[in-house]
């Protein structure tokens, strides 16, 4: 390993107790007797094509006085355009640095309540993204904010999972995410002083939102009155009403870009994505349905997008389209599926997302983000995505063993406990022992 080369390392659970006490960020070690494997293409933590895998023969000892110190920090920062390029690909877990604009949290002491926190971060070029943290990470972040004497301005977040949802970029924390504030890292410190220089040392006038974000129940009349009188903000409400009609003249689906989810523009011979600047984009069919819902107080126009409709009917728009497809007919011009027509006349309890756009003169519809089933209770604020896709499957690929002895290794019984067997051809071509010891720092 060359000096300052960053590689990810894996320790399986059955060996973790042996090495856990030695793992400390910023400490330098010598390491020998390990396996080298090809890095899995999903959820990569570094740019290296290889990874280190600890085995029963691995020696891992701290260096008290290193001869040539290695950098204590190693980040892979990405800007907004790069994050969009990585979104939904599940190939990398990059890092970000930016200015904290706002924080929404539903962390509380209520037993059984799932903790979630959402922070708005401004990156370079004034682009903003939303980072969501869940469970223990949300609680730790919330507690740190409460314990601080002042609000932090800069955040560094590592190993985040970028997603494109409804045409917008959202970031989810993973099990490997670490969060640092202000001057806790060198890049954070540099960014902090850049902000100070920009503002001439004047602190931000608006404190971060640390209060609990509650989801209130409103009538449709109260919802309409709220957007007519309140200050622009992002907030969720729950409403109940009867579907009085479907606006099928505007269709029930659209052809979206497979990369960014924006509606594609038809040309003479292809589909073009304006956002991605791709004149030959790959299209996927997605739901978009406008419906009029009324209660005893008023009537409003609401829109359901792909995620809500897919979950409600347990059927993707593309699958519905295949059942109704007519040769030579554009998907958007297909007849409305019967299960959508059956929504008319039904009473729904649903969660509504009110955004800054709802407070403008161009506002015509409210976006439904969730339809509750009868057994479901009123939800906490809707945070984008979940934490079900993180770096749990980082291990993988063919093994290239590097050992100090000839005991059973990657192809022996121990491998059965660790994961899939190694590529036999790779094993045979690279089974050479070595006593080389490498120097490494845990970052």
Written description of the protein model:
Belongs to the replication factor A protein 1 family. Keywords: DNA-binding, Metal-binding, Zinc, Zinc-finger. The chain has about 450 residues and is of the alpha+beta class. The chain folds into 3 domains: about 10-70 and about 390-440, no CATH class; about 95-200, Nucleic acid-binding proteins (OB fold (Dihydrolipoamide Acetyltransferase, E2P)); about 215-255 and about 285-370, Nucleic acid-binding proteins (OB fold (Dihydrolipoamide Acetyltransferase, E2P)). It has helices at about 15-20, 80-85, 135-145, 185-200, 220-230, 305-315, 315-325, 340, 415-420, 425-430, and strands at about 10, 30, 35-40, 50-55, 60, 95-105, 115-120, 130-135, 155, 160-165, 170-175, 180, 215, 235-245, 255, 265, 270, 285-295, 300-305, 345-355, 365-370, 400, 435-440. Strands 10-11-8-7-6-9-12 form a 7-stranded mixed sheet, with helices on both faces. Residues about 200-205, about 210-215 and about 380-435 have low confidence and may be disordered.
């Amino acid at each position: 390993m060359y000096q300052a080369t960053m590689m990810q390392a894996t320790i399986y659970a059955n060996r973790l107790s042996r090495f856990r006490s030695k793992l400390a960020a910023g400490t330098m070690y010598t390491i020998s007797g390990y396996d080298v494997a090809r890095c899995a293409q999903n959820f990569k933590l570094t740019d290296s094509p290889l990874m280190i895998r600890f085995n029963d023969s691995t020696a891992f000892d701290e260096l008290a006085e290193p001869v040539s110190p290695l950098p204590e920090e190693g980040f892979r920062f990405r800007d907004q355009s790069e994050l969009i390029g990585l979104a939904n690909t599940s190939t990398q877990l990059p890092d970000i640095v930016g200015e904290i604009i706002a924080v929404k949290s539903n962390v509380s002491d209520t037993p059984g309540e799932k903790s979630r926190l959402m922070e708005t971060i401004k990156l370079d070029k004034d682009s903003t993204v939303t980072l969501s943290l869940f469970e223990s990470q949300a609680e730790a972040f919330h507690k740190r904010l409460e314990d601080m004497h002042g609000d932090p301005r800069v955040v560094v977040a590592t190993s985040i999972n970028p997603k494109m949802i409804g045409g917008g970029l959202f970031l989810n924390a993973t099990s490997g995410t670490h969060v640092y504030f202000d001057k806790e890292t060198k890049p954070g410190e540099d960014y902090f002083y850049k902000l100070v220089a920009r503002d001439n040392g004047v602190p931000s006038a608006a404190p971060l939102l640390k209060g609990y974000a509650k989801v209130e129940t409103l009538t449709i009349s109260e919802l309409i009155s709220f957007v007519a009188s309140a200050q622009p903000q992002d907030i969720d409400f729950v409403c109940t009403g009867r579907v009085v009609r479907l606006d099928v003249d505007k269709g029930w689906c659209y052809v979206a870009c497979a990369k960014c989810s924006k509606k594609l523009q038809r040309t003479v011979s292809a589909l073009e994505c304006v956002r991605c600047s791709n004149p030959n984009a790959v299209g996927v069919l997605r739901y978009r349905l406008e419906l009029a819902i009324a209660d005893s107080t008023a009537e409003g126009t609401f829109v359901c997008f792909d995620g809500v409709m897919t979950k409600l009917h347990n059927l993707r728009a593309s699958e519905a389209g295949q059942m109704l497809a007519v040769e030579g007919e554009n998907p958007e011009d297909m007849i409305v599926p019967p299960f959508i027509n059956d929504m008319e006349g039904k009473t729904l309890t649903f969660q509504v997302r009110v955004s800054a756009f709802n407070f403008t003169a161009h506002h015509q519809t409210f976006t439904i983000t969730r339809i509750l089933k009868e057994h479901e209770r009123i939800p906490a604020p809707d945070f984008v995505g979940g934490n079900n896709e993180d770096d749990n499957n980082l291990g993988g690929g063919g093994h290239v063993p590097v050992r100090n002895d000839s005991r059973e290794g990657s192809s022996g019984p121990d491998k059965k406990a660790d994961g899939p067997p190694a590529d036999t051809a790779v094993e045979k071509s690279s089974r050479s022992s070595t006593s080389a010891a490498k120097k490494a720092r845990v970052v």
